[in-house]
TrEMBL record:
Binding site for Mg(2+) 2: D90, D93
Co-factor requirement: Mg(2+)
Alphabetical UniProt keywords: Hydrolase, Magnesium, Metal-binding
Enzyme class: hydrolase
Annotated protein name in UniProt: Putative 3'(2'),5'-bisphosphate nucleotidase
Matches recorded under Pfam families: Inositol_P (PF00459)
A biological-process GO annotation: sulfate assimilation
EC number(s) given by UniProt: 3.1.3.7
Tree of life domain: Bacteria
Protein residues bound to Mg(2+) 1: E71, L92, D203
InterPro entries, sorted: CysQ/Inositol_MonoPase, Inositol_monophosphatase-like
GO molecular function, one term: metal ion binding
Amino acid sequence: MPVDGTAPETDAELATRLAVQTGQILVKLREELFGQGASTWDVKDAGDAAAQAFLARELHEHRPDDAVLSEEEGKTDQRRFTSDRVWIIDPLDGTREFGEPGRFDWAVHVALWTADRFGAAAVSLPAINAVFSTDPAPPHPVFERERPRLVTSRSRAPYSAILVSEGLDCDAVRLGSAGAKAMSLVMGEADIYVHDGGMYQWDSAAPAAVALAAGFHVSRLDGSPIVYNERDPWLPDFIVCRPELAEPVLKSIWG
């Protein structure tokens, strides 16, 4: 117990606090650098470095015995192969969008994988001052659209997304980071997110955990559950959708 007598943070409380505070650091840094006329590349590099440094320091202080799998540190923490507690973090998901003034579709991902399931997670969207956690879980949004809305990449439409869009007659929207896309479903702004262009475990771990907690279907492209803390951090495909749309989505992809 902390020396001031307060109860220690739960894993969910820690994940949420870290996602929020990292986001606050990034928002302030972004404003300062753009105000100084910094280049897009300098803003992106500074954001990645500052977010990683803060999260690494906080996790070392508050969960020193846990392993960490992070985008910025890659596969350097070998403890994750023998640990039942691994924090999978993306300190700045959507670095491209972070480096563009005015864009909101970037995120901070903090997730805890415990042996074979999520122990806690949070995703923050700092530019809109929003955070979504596994505890308390976000309420499942009501589906009121005539046609489902599919969210996909800004730069390319994955083939699987094209199949789903055509098969379910979807309206489509484009967003940047994986966290922003997944949280658009949690916020009720979209209904399906399909990705087949390749990603890493830290790109989807926290969004997957939060979406599952909110009652969404989350799986690989073939419908199988996603397993994290695998030796190879590459995780090439990902589906998040409303549960009633899972079967039609998979049918559209595989026939």
